[in-house]
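Posting this for the archive.
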Amino acid sequence: MRWVMDDESGNAAEGGSQGLPKPVIPPPNLNPPPPPPRAPLDPGPVSSPPPLPSGSEGTRVNMKTKSDGGDESATGAVNFNTRATAAVIDGVISTGITILLALLLPTKVAMLGGFAYLVIRDSLPFLGGQSVGKKAMKIQAVTLEGKSLISDWQTALIRNGPLLIPLFAFVELYILLTREEKPERGRRLGDEWAKTKVIVETKPSQQDEIG
């Protein structure tokens, strides 16, 4: 009797479960709709640069190339070889003056004449403010402002007087040689003390020659 009731209750459960409708699960959507387009960003008004004051221009960069050591006319400085050659020529002239004066005057007086040429050679009026050696090499000693040394005996003494000190000429040659690649190129100690410089000889313009 108990087995029959259990059987009936089992059938009733199956019948009840068979009578309920099965849920329908829709298939997944593999092609989702595209997202709505985004609104473009508003950059806002573009601000223009402030106008420059009237009569002014933008900043200009002026770049100058540095010329090499051999271009004396571009830099205005004289290289070591030119200075040394002019000094050798002036030394020969000083020796010649000493020999000529020694034929007429005592040796000490003749030596003073040769030394005097070395000191005032760049200020002699009849040489136009150029020594014989500088004329041959087409260079000239002037003040830092570009003024000639004609009849400027004080500057000539300060500039060339120390050369009479024994072995000081070799010191000056060493100074010129070590300054070849420096901003103070072409200036020896005498130039610094006398506030002078040696430049390439400048030719007068045609307008100056006509006037």
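The longest helix spans residues 80-102. The CA atoms of residues 141 and 198 lie 4 Å apart.
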